[in-house]
Design goal:
Blueprint: H1 2-13, H2 21-28, H3 42-62, E1 77-81, H4 87-94, E2 98-103, H5 106-119, E3 124-127, E4 140-146, H6 155-164, E5 166-177, H7 181-194, H8 211-220, E6 223-234, E7 239-243, E8 249-256
Parallel strand pairs: 1-2, 1-4, 2-3, 4-5
Antiparallel strand pairs: 5-8, 6-7, 6-8
Length: about 260
């Protein structure tokens, strides 16, 4: 009864939408550049192979499949939250997953649909926020929210919404930026204003989450954090790599009770 009471409290107090209109408008303005590897989404193109390595290895391990197989995620139904133009959704589909990709920006979803069609990939794209999928509660084996939560209106409401869509025993992977002085320097000032990797104003440092804060939100939603891993940049080689240090970018992998 206590668990039901807490769930009702969260349900009645969450915002009407976890998608912030100003954040959606920002990405809408550059939606036609999603698949330009040298455009405003260049950093996402550069980190995508590394983050998909993390996703593949964690999910294949969780579901007891060989990570190096031809289609290690075959048959798994995976939700890609904040799919944008489809960079992650297409990679998941190529790994064999059945993919639903959602985004609050209609223009981005339009780009994603067109690119998937051109690529011959069947992906279920929808213009939606996670709370719009209430009818699919516990309908996914895994839920991904990569570089999304820092753009949401309220992190706990966002985590609650995506957790409801994950089946018991399913896996969740969230990636975001840590709120540290190092992330302010490298993830905000250098990335946006010095190197121009991202359009100026892409992120609000105050909305970055420490791993302890994200872990608290996950546990409140019934997700048990299993692994925290950092994503680092090697300036000498220009490579993005997985590393233990989560002080700038990081992943959290968790499992639903």
């Amino acid at each position: 009864m206590a668990r039901q009471s807490r769930a009702r409290t969260r349900s009645t107090t969450r915002p009407a939408s976890t998608a912030a209109p100003d954040e959606v408008a920002q990405f809408t303005a550059i939606a036609d550049a999603w698949w330009d590897p040298d455009g405003p989404f260049k950093p996402l193109h550069r980190i995508n192979p590394v983050r998909m390595e993390y996703v593949r290895d964690r999910l294949s391990g969780h579901f007891d499949r060989p990570a190096t197989g031809k289609a290690p995620l075959k048959g798994l139904r995976i939700l890609d939250v904040g799919a944008g133009g489809g960079l992650v959704s297409e990679a998941l589909r190529r790994l064999g997953a059945k993919v639903v990709g959602i985004d609050a920006g209609a223009e981005s979803i339009g780009i994603a649909k067109a690119h998937a069609k051109t690529s011959g990939l069947d992906i279920d794209y929808r213009v939606a926020a996670p709370e719009d999928l209430e009818s699919e509660a516990e309908g996914f084996d895994a839920v991904l929210a990569l570089e999304v939560i820092e753009h949401a209106t309220e992190p706990q409401a966002f985590v609650d919404a995506i957790a409801r869509l994950l089946r018991p025993g399913g896996a969740m992977i969230v990636s975001t930026l840590n709120r540290t002085l190092r992330s302010l320097l490298l993830g905000k000032i250098v990335a946006e204003y010095v190197l121009g990797w991202l359009p100026a104003g892409s992120h609000d440092w105050n909305k970055f989450l420490k791993p302890s804060e994200l872990g608290k939100h996950l546990r409140a939603a019934g997700i048990v954090p299993v692994d925290v891993h950092g994503l680092g940049f090697r300036s000498l080689t220009g490579e993005w790599v997985l590393e233990p240090d989560p002080s700038v970018n990081y992943f959290v992998y968790g499992v639903k009770n």
